[in-house]
Amino acid sequence: MKTKLLFVLLSMFMGITMVNAQPRRGNMSAEDIAKRQTTQTTEALNLNKATSEKLYQINLKYAEKMKEAFADRSSDREAMRDEMMSIREQKNKELKQLFTKEQFEKYQKHQQEMMQQRRGMRR
Fold first, then answer.
1. How far apart are CA 110 and CA 123, in angstroms?
2. Which residues contact 88 (CB under 8 A, 6 or more apart)?
3. pLDDT averaged per 10 residues, the chain (length 123)
């Protein structure tokens, strides 16, 4: 009986520990966001190291801007959405200069797929 109780308590403790160890996207730093985005894009586009490093700098710059825009929740939702769209457009302009035409087209397709996946997760 004591063994069963100990096993149940240990299992519950391990489960709680594992849930808390999962990273939460809302708590990610700009650096972590930039790293994740860079890794995903580098793999999707098969980028070389030099391009990947430039991509990281761009991702970091815009992750910081997005974090700032999201942190300023005092403004209304529509204004925040407009600001984030503007930031995304600025980032896309820089990425268009970094990537080849084919890479940028593939990047846009990859972004659309990722957006659809996120929308599917919300439902």
1. 21
2. 62
3. 59 56 68 95 94 96 90 76 91 96 94 85 64
How high is the pLDDT of residue 60? 96
* 3-class DSSP state of 99: coil
pLDDT at 56: 97
From CA 7, how far away is CA 11, in angstroms rounded? 6
Q: 10 Å Cβ neighbour count for 47?
A: 19
Q: What is the C-alpha separation between 29 and 44, in angstroms, rounded?
A: 23
**Contact assessment for residue 54 and residue 42, using Cβ atoms and an 8 Å cutoff:** no
Phi-psi category of 93—alpha, beta or left, where left has phi over 0 and alpha has psi -120 to 50? alpha
Count of residues making up the chain: 123
**Is residue 39 within 8 Å of 22, Cβ to Cβ?**
no
98 touches 52 (CB < 8 A): no
What pLDDT is attached to residue 6? Answer: 52
Greatest CA span in the chain, whole angstroms?
A: 67
